[in-house]
Design a protein that fits this description.
Shape: elongated
Number of helices: 3
Structural class: mainly alpha
Radius of gyration: 25 Å
Strand content: under 5%
Largest sheet: none
Helix content: over 70%
């Protein structure tokens, strides 16, 4: 009897999760263009940060220290 209740709960939970997933996908489809723009902006800012970090860390070291063994 307990197993039956657990299965029913699992089915109900999975049904709720599927509905939530469908709602999320619907929202993503309706706002696909805005999401793509936002994703591109985030990627570009991460690239910029990475470039600046690498320039600061690796290119500002004096030459004698760069090749010290």
């Amino acid at each position: 009897m307990a197993e039956l209740n657990n299965r029913e709960e699992m089915v109900n939970v999975s049904h709720v999760n599927i509905e939530r997933l469908d709602e999320s996908l619907d929202i993503m489809e309706r706002h696909a263009e805005a999401m793509a723009e936002t994703e591109e902006a985030i990627k570009e800012s991460l690239r910029k940060w990475d470039r600046e970090y690498k320039n600061e860390r690796f290119h500002s070291v004096p030459k004698p220290r760069k090749h010290a063994r």
